[in-house]
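seq/struct pair 1
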Amino acid sequence: MGFIYIFTNESMPGLVKVGLTTRSPEERARELDSTGVPMPFRVAASWPVESDLKIMENKCHQLLKEFRLSNNREFFKIEVSEAISILDPHFLTSEQIALEKERIRKKREQQRHYEEQLKKQRIQEKERLSLERWQGEIESLKSNINLLDCRLESIKLTLSQPESLISLALYKFHEILSLLVVILMRLAPFAMALFGFISGEYIIQKLLFAGGFYFVSLFFFGFLGFICIALIGQIERLRCAIFGESYAQQQVTLGTLVCKLKEEHNKLNCLESKKTP
């Protein structure tokens, strides 16, 4: 904020001084009143300038350049009234400045209001998209839960059928038979070795009989055990082909489905808690 001024001096008739000041023109006139000037300067005219004070001063000097006495001096050989008539159209009046300030204020207020509305719209759009995404995820989880419930009920119904109970009995029988085969393969060689050791009369004979019986029985019962295991596997595959998925496998599937169902319910509760404000 500053002023462009026109000063006159009685000791310099026909000359005017055009310059700028960031203080009041009267203060600037008093500053120029020194022993080097016979008479004090008088403020003939002044115009307030909001910004670009130096640019406005140069513009005024350019408008009055044909009347300038020297390029490094701010004195012009021109009548005061003529200088005012040349410069005055390029300045705003106090009312015009006030109107311009009000216009700028309203424009800034409108811009601020527009930015606030735009920000609110962006937030609302973001919330809407988040809500739609949550709703989509919730619907997907509900659909998965319904499918898991149907699968769970189907397995429970299957397990309650007589065929599943028969399959369970066969499965348990195979487990017991497999256990007996393993025990036979492990214990029979030692039992035969003990029998051979008892059958001998001398210690060398006892050891030879025990070793012979052990290795022969190990080979024999091992071979027999492998045959039994292979037969058990074939019977199990045949049973699965007849009855479908085994009882144990259905139990495992049932447990897996229950865990999966709990996870889906937890996810659903978490999403619904986020959705609820």
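seq/struct pair 2
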Amino acid sequence: MALCVYLLAAAATPPRNPHPHKGILDKYERRPPSYYGMRVDKGIEARLLDGKAYVSKVDLPNGFRRTIAMKDVDAPPDIVFGQIIDVEGYPKKIDGVIGTRIYRDYRTLSGIRVFCAHYTVRFAAVVAESYVQHEIDPFSRCMTFQLDYSIKSDVADQVGYWYVEPLRNNRARVYYSVMSTVPFWVPKMMHGAVLDLVAKRSTSWVDVESRKEYAAKSSRWTAAFGAKMRKLKSRF
């Protein structure tokens, strides 16, 4: 029995080869979107109110790119944030995510959840693996992520940020920002196409999955309320 437990623990532990560095890019902190220049002007506001996503891409030195995306979602912020932090559900929700597995998970004394996950992702003909550390602040509905530098990933570096802002009428505004590059072995002529695909997938899935969950919960609430009212009427 002890041997079986040991083997299971070993199987759940990722390989120990470290990443070549401890981080090239500046890490995101759990701060409001405005701290990172994500401000909604009149043009962006009009686009978001029209149900469209706003996406901005900035090429950085050494092949990195920063992608910023914003999207209004017709679902409560807690449901929206719940979709974002459900990393193990990504393969069923995000096109191109083949697999995810959490291999470390704990909470700090201040209530921040920290977990690391192994991702296998496909971009067209490219399949890449990465080991990512996430930090979740449930109070501000913010999640930051970066590579787990204790384990080698296929990408040179990656840092990112999610933030969910409550809006009126049970709606939410999603802010997303990521700085990343593609694996070094991907042909240079494919870099732009791969990064464009990443930007395209950024927030669209959050909108779809959040509205789907909200509709399902609303249907259950309506059914439960109807049953309760019928029960009350039967007493008179």
